[in-house]
């Protein structure tokens, strides 16, 4: 397998996790920021013989690859995905910020090529459970606000997790605008972003990793469902599971919850 974005925060974690799996082999490491050095020492391992290169297309044309794992950035992920599928390779994507129309296009290409694509805005099992529980709660408590909190180097807002949570909640909640009909903002944006009448709030601070609270309000009560990723290792079991599963898939799965049976 190949890691794209290998020198980034998540890419390095994935490289290390793959080396811990006896039946997995890293055959390539891509990053536009860096070139030509061995990926091993960058992740605290001995030299591995896998050099970081910049050109994904060239690597895929010259190397036998089963799966590419992408943790790059919202501005580049769509182009990367197309390059991988054009080279007839399966794909696991953790990069967030993919637009709905881009997702539709990727679905068409993956289905036509018979390739597997697993896209998950959050690979932490606890986050997947948080989303599932939130969707369940919305059946009974439709007034809800989502507060996502991430490190201050994150580019996209709201987080992919918050959007996915809102989409899952929406399946169990009639569309209606929450709050007072005459409410107004004295500072623009202070009530957060609106998704089908729900509010999403994005907090960015150094020290944070990835956290989310889904707060429901009802008659005389509130319910808070919260998940915290305390380090990036929290995402690795989900990434490794996805690498294993994607090779037997055809088409796109969006969300790790679809791989985890009841
Ligand atoms: N799905 C999840 O569970 C999960 C978890 C954490 C982060 N993320 C997402 O993963 C993405 C990456 O996060 P990060 O914190 O690792 O970011 P980062 O900035 O630390 O790393 C991104 C890396 O990708 C490289 N890169 C950028 N464009 C590239 C391109 N075109 N080709 C090759 N390499 C390229 C950068 O040089 C950098 O090293 C973000 O979208 C983030 O939201 C998802
Ligand atoms: O670090 C990030 O960036 C993360 N992004 C994901 C998102 O946008 O939902 C979640 C995990 C961390």
Write a structural description.
The chain is an alpha/beta fold. It has 2 domains: 2-119 and 233-258, NAD(P)-binding Rossmann-like Domain (Rossmann fold, 3-Layer(aba) Sandwich); 125-230, Dihydrodipicolinate Reductase, domain 2 (2-Layer Sandwich). Helices cover 31% and strands 23% of the residues. It contains 8 helices and 12 strands. It has helices at 9-20, 39-42, 56-62, 77-86, 100-113, 125-137, 160-170, 236-246; strands spanning 2-4, 28-30, 52-53, 67-70, 90-93, 116-119, 143-150, 193-195, 198-204, 210-218, 221-229, 251-254. The strands form 2 sheets. A 7-stranded parallel sheet has the order 3-2-1-4-5-6-12, sandwiched between helices. Strand 1 (2-4), helix 1 and strand 2 form a beta-alpha-beta unit. Helix 4 (77-86) runs parallel beside helix 5 (100-113) and helix 6 runs parallel beside helix 7 (160-170). The longest helix is centred in the middle third of the chain and has 14 residues, at 100-113. The model has no long low-confidence stretch (mean pLDDT 96). Bound molecules: nicotinamide-adenine-dinucleotide and ligand LLHOTIJI.
Relevant terms:
262 residues; alpha/beta; Rossmann fold; Dihydrodipicolinate Reductase, domain 2; 2 domains; seven-stranded parallel beta sheet; five-stranded mixed beta sheet; 8 helices; 31% helix; 23% strand; binds nicotinamide-adenine-dinucleotide; binds the ligand O=C(O)C1=N[C@H](C(=O)O)CCC1
**So, the CATH homologous superfamily of the largest domain?**
NAD(P)-binding Rossmann-like Domain
What is the approximate shape?
elongated
Q: What number is the mean pLDDT? A: 96
Low-confidence regions? none
Subcellular location: Cytoplasm
Domain Dihydrodipicolinate reductase N-terminal: 2-123
Catalytic activity: (S)-2,3,4,5-tetrahydrodipicolinate + NADP(+) + H2O = (2S,4S)-4-hydroxy-2,3,4,5-tetrahydrodipicolinate + NADPH + H(+); (S)-2,3,4,5-tetrahydrodipicolinate + NAD(+) + H2O = (2S,4S)-4-hydroxy-2,3,4,5-tetrahydrodipicolinate + NADH + H(+)
Binding site for NADP(+): 33
